[in-house]
Amino acid sequence: MLILSIDTSTTVCSVALHQAGALLGSYELFTERTSSAMLTTLIGDVVRHAGHELRQLDAVAVAKGPGSYTGLRIGVSTAKGLCFALDKPLLAINTLAAMAEQIRPLFSSDYRLCPMLDARRMEVYCAIFDTNGQELLPTSAKIVEEQSFSEWLMEQPVVFFGDGATKCRPLLSGHGNAIFPNMEIRPSARTVGQLAMQAFAAGRFEDVAHFEPFYLKDFMVTKPKKVVG
Question: What is the second-level CATH architecture of the domain 106-179?
Answer without folding.
Answer: 2-Layer Sandwich (3.30)
